[in-house]
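Handout, tutorial session.
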Amino acid sequence: MGADLEHIREFSPLGRVPVPVLNDGTALTDSAAMLDEIDDQIGPSRALLPASGASRCREQRHGALEVIEVHCREIGRDAWLVDERFSHAEITVTCISTFRGESLDALGDARYLALPAHVERCEALHEFRATGRGRVC
């Protein structure tokens, strides 16, 4: 960025790029907003996500779960998500995954194998079992 940083900050105060600027001057600094704008411009038949409703929510949920699933596969069964130790990331992912699995059966999908194994490993820890329900969530 270097010499362009000040110019970029006119549209993106944090200097984040890319920062598409629409014809009306609106600067898009959030990835989701960029994708929504692309979907709007290309139309519903070619859009990456449904425009609204339950199908959009389902696609977003599976997109997020897929990212975590791939990361779990890449790091292997005995590694932690972020560092070389149990962290807040494990608590967050385990709680969200457990909630989703119980309420939406989102992890019952055959696409997800490494993520449920990671959650099971976390829930087997003393810190999770000591809560009484077997989980901290």
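The second record follows below. Compare its token runs with those of the first.
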Amino acid sequence: MRAAHIVLSACFVVVSGAFLQGCTRAVPAAEVPGTYEAHYPFGKGTLTLGSDGRYQQTLQIGDRTASTSGDWRYLEDQNILYQHCLAATNGFGRLNANWETPFAGGCVVPVTKRFWVAGAIEIDGDEMYHYRKTSK
């Protein structure tokens, strides 16, 4: 009886791990361009990645707006690199005090697709808030 319990528990762990591994998958480069939105308790962000390698990013916090644009590219490791990005949060879900000032260098953030069949493409710029693709 005890051996059967151990075998069933081991099977459950293996199946659960396989299921969780399959919840995200690599995103083909052709699917990455488009418009993405992030919603924060204090505002909203819009990121448009053009198929020409250019991007436009806008943050709206309260009655203020900041925008930036530049070049972007999809890297082999399933990340995007875009130059002079804006960061609405400080990495811990709170408003970044310098959200209106673009970073001097580039931002590298992962791109994921939730679930195999019908999941949305997300750009994970923060642990709590993600840009989710809204249109091509």
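Points raised in discussion: Strands lie at 24-25, 34-40, 43-49, 54-61, 64-74, 79-83, 106-114, 121-123, 131-135.
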